[in-house]
Design a protein that fits this description.
The complex is a heterodimer of chains A (about 400) and B (about 230). Chain A is of the alpha+beta class. The radius of gyration of chain A is 33 Å and the shape is elongated. In chain B, strand 7, helix 6 and strand 8 form a beta-alpha-beta unit. Classes of the chains: A alpha+beta (about 400), B alpha/beta (about 230). Chains A and B meet through helix 1, helix 11 and helix 15 of A and helix 2 of B.
């Protein structure tokens, strides 16, 4: 073992109370760092899951084509006004080929074609407007995580079945097994059997969502043989914009990613991340100040020893290394201890804040504590913090000691 | 011939404090031979400690040369001087200046560490042997705070000899010890000087040291006042 290392370790060992205090200081800083990382990352995942768990990550829709002008002349500037809604409804006709093409794209995990439209459910005098989406058979669960949200009945539907939000059910006094009459904005009506009632933890969605099979929706919205959109789930949710751009180029359809439609969520996640980074920065700063002040004190206390080492032929660089190595070990061992305590603290907190239904009260994820990063940053920061004390130690003149 | 291990030629040292200049050494010429036991005497402020630190390469002279085992030290840079000091010079100070976190043996071994060579066991054995020779065979693994004042100074002597230096410079080595212990330490240094052929230069006010020296150098006001066998 290089003698600088053995001296550094001896100094750390012999510090006793001071060593315990400095290790505790570093460990506490890392507990704060890892706890913030586990909380902020857990919160980000929880928020993102809540938002995108029940929506497509990328949506492919037909492009709206403006009416083409026929027979214009160069000398004439035509003025055209197109009333919104008068243009023909755009559908995706060769959708099966598009689905096949999209399924083969790396990064795309699930694909489902759907037909969406607006309609009304009427019971007696009460009329509730609904947004209806019909999926291919078996594809509903691929896009919408209803299984966990089903409060009555089942999430599996076939032709002639419907799933409705708990808000609609309460408003109209409906329950599973009953029939309801759904009228689309195209004037088509179908009688459907309620197979399930869901709660997706959003009153807005519970009050207006209804799901059917694809054939039912095609009939209701007069989209025979076609679909109105193709929905995708992707592996890298934050890579969705790039993938959407690629898919738009491949298919000629308009590709809308979830981030573009949820800018506020993105802003919130960024702000939340920045706040977490700030707290982490201050915890690292705390470590730097603690280590630097501790080692400065050590240098002052050991000045006679350093002077005597210099008189015995220990070079300035060796003295520098003795203190840098102390910084490195304090940072490494203190942060390992802190990472361990941080994981324990986050795990305990995640457990004690569990709600009776098993959901998390505090969206903390102990696995996302960035422990490796915390240990690496603390070790480097602690070593850098030792630079100033090490330089002061290296400048010690043996004469100062000998003439005292 | 040359059994001269240390030579000082026209050494001058001036300290500057603002506009005030103090000339502490005013042209010192001295030679020391292998195996000599020399006492350096003089009143406080005469310049003997300054001379000792310049000879020990801890301080550079304002002018003049120090030649140690044939090497002119003014031609070496700081790193080379440090290495040279480690290999050729041992120090014993008035206050032992041992490293308190280490055992007696580890303190003795310390000067061998920067050389990064030699078998660790052999070096440990040499440190143990030196401690035995200074009468501390039963204190080898004691930490410094558990040793008495005389024992600490013995450890310091053993440490000074660890790298088998050509010269040992001692600044008031018995100044902090009671008379009896001081005599023991002094006798030990004299014995080691004869056994190892190491040149000892001891700065002291103690006439008893002068009496057992081969030669006494008396410094007064920055100059060699008298040099020769003890009176």
């Amino acid at each position: 073992m290089p003698f600088e290392l053995s001296v550094a370790l001896r100094y750390i060992r012999s510090g006793r109370l001071q060593t315990v205090l400095i290790f505790s200081g570093v460990a506490v800083g890392i507990v704060v760092f890892t706890f913030m990382a586990a909380l902020i990352n857990g919160l980000a995942i929880s928020l993102t899951d809540n938002v995108i768990g029940n929506i497509a990550h990328v949506r492919l829709e037909p492009r709206t084509r403006p009416p083409q002008l026929l027979g214009s002349r160069d000398s004439v500037t035509p003025l055209v006004a197109v009333q919104r809604g008068d243009e023909p409804r755009a559908n995706i006709n060769g959708w099966r080929a598009v689905v096949q093409m999209v399924e083969a794209v790396p990064g795309v995990t699930r694909v489902a074609a759907s037909v969406t439209g607006s309609g009304f459910i009427q019971r007696g005098e009460r009329i509730v407007p609904v947004s209806v989406t019909g999926y291919e058979e078996g594809k509903l669960s691929a896009m919408v995580d209803l299984a966990a949200g089903i409060v009555r009945g089942t999430a599996t539907i076939g032709p002639g079945d419907v799933l409705i939000g708990v808000g609609i059910a309460e408003e109209l006094g409906l329950t599973t097994g009953q029939r309801l009459r759904l009228r689309s904005d195209r004037g088509r009506e179908r009688t459907l059997v309620i197979r399930g009632i869901f709660d997706v933890q959003s009153a807005n969605l519970n009050d207006r969502l209804a799901f059917t099979d694809l054939g039912t929706a095609q009939g209701l919205f007069e989209v025979v043989g076609a679909v109105t959109r193709i929905e995708l789930k992707v592996a890298d949710i934050f890579g969705a914009p790039a993938l959407a751009e690629r898919l738009a180029g491949m298919t000629g359809l308009e590709a809308i990613d979830w981030i573009a439609e949820n800018a506020r969520l993105q802003d919130a996640l960024t702000a939340q991340g920045n706040t977490g980074d700030l707290v982490k920065f201050f915890s690292v700063l705390l470590i730097i100040i603690a280590v630097a002040s501790q080692l400065l004190l050590s240098v002052m206390r050991r000045k006679p020893e350093i002077g005597i080492m210099r008189s015995m032929g220990i070079t300035r660089s060796s003295v520098t290394w003795i203190f840098l190595l102390q910084g490195l070990f304090i940072g490494l061992l203190g942060s390992l201890l802190g990472a361990l305590l941080g994981y324990g603290f986050s795990s305990v907190l995640a457990q004690v804040t569990l709600r009776p239904d098993g959901s998390q009260g505090l969206p903390i994820d102990p696995a996302l504590g960035e422990y490796g990063l915390a240990v690496a940053i603390a070790t480097v920061a602690s070593t850098l913090a030792a630079l100033l004390p090490a330089r002061i130690a290296a400048r010690t003149d043996p004469m100062e000691v000998i003439t005292q | 011939m040359s059994d001269v291990v240390l030579r000082a030629t026209d050494l001058v040292k001036t300290f500057t404090d603002g506009e005030t200049e103090t000339r502490v050494l005013k042209g010192i010429d001295l030679e020391f031979r292998k195996g000599e036991f020399v006492s350096l005497m003089g009143p406080s402020g005469s310049g003997k400690s300054t001379l000792l630190t310049i000879l020990g390469t801890l301080l550079r002279p304002t002018s003049g040369e120090v030649e140690l085992v044939g090497k002119v030290l003014s031609r070496l840079d700081d790193r080379e001087v440090t290495r040279f000091r480690n290999q050729h010079i041992g120090f014993v100070f008035q206050f032992h200046h041992l490293l308190p976190d280490f055992t007696a043996r580890e303190n003795v071994r310390f000067p061998s560490l920067p050389q990064r060579k030699g078998d660790a066991r052999a070096l440990d054995a040499r440190a143990t042997d030196l401690l035995e020779r200074v009468g501390l065979a039963d204190r080898v693994d004691f930490r410094v705070p558990k040793l008495s004042g005389g024992q600490k100074q013995r450890v310091a002597i053993a440490r000074a000899l660890m790298n088998a230096p050509d010269i040992v410079l001692a600044d008031e080595p018995t100044g902090n010890l009671d008379r009896e212990t001081g005599q023991e330490v002094l006798g030990l240094m004299r014995q080691l000087c004869e056994e190892n052929g190491t040149m000892f230069l001891i700065s002291t006010h103690d006439e008893a040291i002068a009496e057992i020296s081969d030669r006494t150098v008396r410094i007064l006001d920055g100059r060699v006042e008298r040099e020769g066998p003890p009176a």
